[in-house]
Every structure is written in structure tokens, then in C-alpha cells.
Amino acid sequence: MISSIGSPEERPIPAGATLVDFGGRVLAPAYFDQHVHGSGGFDVMEATDEALTGVGRFLARHGVAGYLATTVTASMEATLASLSGLAKLIERRSKDRSHDRAGEALPVGIHLEGPFLSHEKRGVHSPELLLTPTVAIFDKFWQAAEGHIRLITIAPELANAEEVIAHATGLGVRVSLGHSNATMAEARAGIAAGAVSATHTFNAMRNFNQREPGILGVVLDEGSLFAELICDGYHVDASAVRLFWKVKGAERTILITDGMSATGMPDGMYKLGNLDVEVIDGKCMSGGSIAGSTLTMDRAVENFHSFTRAGLGEVVGVAGRNPARMLGLDDRFGSLEVGRRADFVVLGEGGGLREVVSGGESVGD
Fold first, then answer.
1. Domains delineated in the chain
2. What would you report as the CA-atom Rg of the chain, rounded to the nearest whole angstrom?
3. pTM, rounded to two decimals
4. Residue 237 is a catalytic residue
5. Active-site entry in 258, 276, 330, 365
6. Among 93, 206, 271, 305, which has the highest number of CB atoms less than 10 A from its own CB?
């Protein structure tokens, strides 16, 4: 717990306390990843204590304090089973303080990515499992997840999408537009219905055209909309990252990893939900399409700083403060304040991660 913040002159060190000197490096709030499917060999859709513990420990070592367990399109049976299992694990961790231990990022909700996605921009999501959105289907997911869905990705051009966006928003769920072939008008209708963010901008989106800017044009133009970005230099070229930064800026940019179970693991075959994914040189492919990433949030921060030359204060904000703000979790994550859990990162030159403090304890490799 953070008991006070100040200089040694302002806050004398209590007797018996251990002094740790980080040598003039930058201290910043730990990060928050709202779009991560797994890491360290584990997929969140396994929905086991072992899987979430493995994911949480891996994420913590890379500077993440909290995250949304992100699903991928699966059968109705498999999706409901995963949501139910995840809900119980998230609830247990919120009630049992023994799970709020140092060295483990906390899953504080679920990001439902699929099945309400466009066939044209589905990426690796199985086409036969995509569904037309309805309030009745969403409510099945909501009930299975026991109210722990905090974010849902939806293609706004689908039939009934606006109704489902409004319904989910009314329940307190944040809605993100993505995996979409929407026109400009369809994207704006999704925002009018309640959508507040965009999922992995540029990827799985209708291409920009000067006469019909489409969903990408709306995402870049709409000042109130938050927007995710995968900053690994592969999903989005550095020049496009700079363009994105110029238009979305420090208040609306959200860094994500879209990391999957292969993150932190050797090349080989891995699972993304029920999909088989081949990882070669750290790049994830399934059926000829990109399938998530092996990016870590600390590396995303370094890349973003390098690509844009934005100040570290702004960069750490888009990796922690902004997702927390968008999700309504900024009372718990994204800033260093007295009374909060001592979760912070120690950064060197260029934003490189030098140390992680989780729950007041240093987290090693």
C-alpha cells in the first residue's frame, strides 16, 4: 500500500524502513492491458486457476497490474463455459485477498471479442461461429459471466448491432467497434448508440478511402472515441503509429498487446481459444491471417516512445491511465496515489523496463 508520496525532505523515512534507491530513474504507474488472450503458454479461455495465475504472473513481470481476460469467437457452449469459469475466478480473486498477492496482475473483468463480428473483417475468428447480435444472445453471455463483462467488441454494421450496443451500454459495459467493414455512417451510428472505443485500430477494419472514409476514418476523426493500438511494428507500421498519435493524442490512445498464449514462449504451435496458431519469429498466423501477437506491454511502451518520440509521461498514460479511464477503473489503476496498492514500474532511458514493483514487492524474472 502507498502510505505517502513526497521527497525525503518532505517525508522523512520512518525508522526501520528499508530505503530503495532507483538511481534517478522514472517511476510510473503499472500498466493495464484491456486486450490480452493469454501468455506464458496459457490461454484465458482455459478458465482455470492455473491458467489465470500463469497469465497474471507473466503480465506482472512485464509491468502490468491489471487486465481484461479476452475471449475469441468459439462455439456457444465453449464460450458460455469459459465465461462462467472466468467469472468465478475473477470473483474469487476480488473477494479472497490471498489472490491479491504481489507478483500477479489481476483479472478485473472480461473483454468479449466475438462472436458479433463482420465476416469480411473477421481475421482468424471462425466464420461458422460468428453470430448476428441480439439482446437475447448477449444476455446469455452476460448471465454466464455473472456481470463481469466489462468490454465487448462488435461490428456496428451488423443487423441489430445498435440495439445490442445500447443494451450493453445500459448495463455498464463499454463497447468497442472492431472487426468491422462499416461505412462511415454505420460507424457513426454505433457511436451514437453508445460505443466509446475502437478495437486494434487499422487491423481488421475497412480500408480508408478519401470518398468513403469508413470506420477507420471515423475512428481517426472522432475526438471523443478511445482507440486501441498494437504497437509491435508489425501490426501497424511506425509511420501509421505516428499518424495515429497526431490525431488521437494523449487523451484517447490506448496501447494493447492482443497477446496470446505464445507470448514469452519459443516459436511453435499454440492455441488461441480453439484455434491452432503457428508462431514463427514471434509472428502469429492462422489460416494465412494474423492471429494475435507475442507483444508485451513493456515492449509496446518502448516501441511507442521510439516511434513517436512522445514524452514518457504521455506514453505511460496510454498504457495505463487511458484504459483505466475508458473502463471506469481509474479509481484502482493508472495513477500513483496514497492508499492504493503499490504497483509501479521503474523505467530507464527510452522507456525500457528496469524493475517492476507489484503489491509493494519487487518482481524478478
1. 30-340 (3.20.20.140)
2. 20
3. 0.95
4. no
5. 258
6. 206
